[in-house]
Amino acid sequence: MAQILTPSYLVNYINDAARHKAELRPPRLLVMSGLGGIYIALGGLLALVVAGGATGLLANNPGLDKLLFGAAFPVGFIAVVLTGADLFTSNCAMQMVPWFRRQIRLGEVVRVWCLSYLGNLIGALIAAWAFAYLTGMLDPGQPWTPYLLNLAEHKVHQPFMVVFLKGILANMLVCLAAWQGYSAKDTLGRMVGIWVPVMTFVALGMEHSIANLFFVPAAMLAGLDVSVSEFVFQNLIPATLGNVVGGALLVGLPYAWLYSETDGKVENPTEIDLP
C-alpha cells in the first residue's frame, strides 16, 4: 500500500502553510523571498544561455527553441519549492485558503504579498546585476544577449490587456505547479509536478512578474533602450495584476471553496495500491 495526498488533504496542508507564513516576522519573510527571487532569476539565466545559445535551432525551428527555453526555466521554481524559499506569485493562491476560512485577515494577506514581492524584487535585481551583468554573461559578444534583448523588448511593447491576460494564465500554471509539487511524497515526484506547468507557461510566452523582474532589468543592463517607467507601467503592473487574478481568483479561491467542507481539519492521506 502506498499513500497519495488527496485534494482535500492538500488544500488543508496549504492552509496551514499559508497561515504559518502570515505569522512570520518581516525580516524572515524578506530573506525567504529574496532567495526566491534569486532562484527564479538563475532559472531564467539558465534558460537564456541554453535557448539563446541555440542560434541554429532558433533560426530553423523557433517552436522547439521556445520549448527548450521553457524546459530549462523551471530549475529556479523547483529550488524555491524544495528549499522553502518564497515566491509572490504562489502566495497569491496559497494565502486565499486561510483567508476564505477566516483564519487570517485580508490585511495579513496583503502584508505577505507585499513583503514577498519586495523580497523577490531585491533578489531578482541582485541576480541580474551580480550574476548576469558583472560576470560578463551579458556582454555583446555572447550569443544569448540578442535573444535577451529581443525577449525584453517584446515584453515591454505589448498592449496592457495582452500582458494582463498573459499574466493570468502564467500564474494559474505557476500555482498549479506549486499545488502539484506539494502533492507528491518524494523529491522526484515533486520536481515533475512543478516542472510541467512551469515549462508550459514559459514556452507559451506568458508573463510572470517575478521572472520579468530579472529579464527586463538584465536586458537594460545589457543595453536595452527602455526606461524604468516604461518597464513598470507597460509590463510590470499589468503582469502583476494578471498574476494576482490568476492565482487568487482562479486557483486559490476556487479550491478553498471546493474543499471548504473539511473546515480546516487535516485528513489522512488516502492509501491505495500503486502498480
TrEMBL record:
Keywords from the UniProt entry: Membrane, Transmembrane, Transmembrane helix
Bilayer topology term: Multi-pass membrane protein
Broad class of where this protein is predominantly found: membrane
Membrane-crossing segments per the record: 29-55, 67-88, 109-136, 156-179, 191-216, 236-258
UniProt subcellular location: Membrane
InterPro entries the UniProt entry points to: Aquaporin-like, For/NO2_transpt, For/NO2_transpt_CS
Pfam families the record matches: Form_Nir_trans
Coiled-coil residues: none
PROSITE patterns referenced in this protein's UniProt entry, alphabetically: FORMATE_NITRITE_TP_1, FORMATE_NITRITE_TP_2
PANTHER family: FORMATE TRANSPORTER-RELATED (PTHR30520), FORMATE_NITRATE FAMILY TRANSPORTER (EUROFUNG) (PTHR30520:SF6)
Family: Belongs to the FNT transporter (TC 1.A.16) family.
Matches recorded under NCBIfam families: fnt
Full protein name: Formate/nitrite transporter
